[in-house]
Amino acid sequence: MTSMQASFIINLGNDSQVPIISFTATSPSLTSLRSEYFVRATLNDSSQVKALTAIIQAFGWRNVVPIYVDDDFGEGINPSLTDALNEIGTQIPYRSVINSSVIDQEIVAELYKLMTMQTRVFVLHMTKSLGSRVLNKAQEVGMMSEGYVWIVSNGLTNTLSLVGTSLVGSFKGVIGVKPYVPRSKMIEDFILHWKGKYSKDVNVDAYGLWAYDATTSLVMAVEKVGYINSNFRKMDSSRNSVNLGKYLRRVISSTRFNGLSGDFHIVNGQLQSSIFEIINGIGDGERVIGFWTKKNGFVKELNSMKKVDVGDIIWPGESTSAPKGWVIPTNGKKLRIGIPVKDGFSNFVKLIKDPSTNTIRVTGFCIDVFEAVMAALPYDVPFEYIPFEKPDGSAAGSYDELVYQVFLGNFDAVVGDVTIRANRSRYVDFTLPFTESEEQLVNNLSRLVVIIWCFVVLILIQSYTASLTSTITIKQLEPTFTSSEQLIEKGKIVGYPKGSFVEGLLRNSNMSTLMVYKTRDELHIKFSKGEIGAAFDEIPYMKLFLAKHCSKYTMVGPTLKTNGFGFVSSLSLSHDFSDN
Fold this sequence. Notes:
single chain, alpha/beta, 8-stranded mixed sheet, 5-stranded mixed sheet, 19 helices, 32% helix, 22% strand
């Protein structure tokens, strides 16, 4: 009985007050019916979502494409899968929905469409009949080669042994999840008895075991209710009939025993399970590479915290190296590179517009580094610079807002003097820092480096006439203020750069009297007029400022360390950027 058929049967059960027990209807949508007479003696499809996403999280894949059948079974898992992927920071750039009556040519067309996209991680949620066709066609068109990732749900994994030899080749390298059923002599004896009585060609999967255990639970419940005959005795009133149906369902739900499938336990009309096997398709079948449990997550062995050895996994193309999960798309699309728009400190990023041709040119240290990295990549990546600006040409927001555009999908990456911050890393990827000790280019990018922000204070050059020698001397140059506490205590106005994260740090430090500046010259003017007593900024900018006004200012602590400048991307290009 499919999930669609179960929905109709459940309504009949509600009308007749008779419990409906299903061991094949897995769609989470059936839960929304809130039937008092429905018992699901199989797993809700949403129960496997955490196991699926644990695999994705273990390998750091940031984009995943679900491929599912266009019916209640296929669509039912979507809400819980989407929520679980969001929790681990993985996005769904595209959903591939395939009709159950699709012909092979239409499957191939959809697969070719997927090949033009960047994402190479697919979650396949289908029944064995359609799922096996999709995997076979994927093998034919070359999507079972190195670099691809196929993760299949238990709807297909659970029945792998029943599909036949036609799927063996296309299942090689696939990762799947399925409910854990402990191997036991009781199962072996049951299968031998079943094949001896019915057919040697019939295999029993988890659904068959659940069906047997569901029947056993029903018999136990009926015996407990007191009706051991298959025919229900006629009740005196419809009210008694209603009570009997509800009571029978309640007894079934409270029944717990060690059945063929293991611990058979139904709670609120739903079979419970907390363990999933993670299997890997190999040449002649499958092998178990790990388990997922609610307590320990993705582990190599049960009752152990040991993580799965990823080197044991065979991937498509018989590769033992974990795929990175993406490639540069072949559909000719250019990467959209967001560029900050700013008035000052153009040494890092400078936007030059040509009104006559309506074109832009971008220069600066950060741009030079980015273009050198792109030239060093082992593949060609077309890209275009897009300023983050309003129609009037002014900046469209802060650096935090610029970075967030990558998460929203408005930019594929951001290049510029963008500081790596923890709050930004929650929703985008950063490359390794490309600055060390201010603006010096890092040769060994595996080292973590820092950019230090500090504040600059105006030096009061004091002189006096020595009464004995009448010689004019200059005291040792000293800053007017040496700590943020002094600035707060004296109520001094503090400057900060427009659009920088520094503003938030200052406000969190109880510095409420702030004044923004845009350029080095504007900062100098504010100091000269006495409008500010100090300014907080990052060292790269302060070095540029001091280079122009070295005789009038100095830098003092305290300092707060950050992780430096990095490129921003949601496309998982960060790994290749950092390597180059």
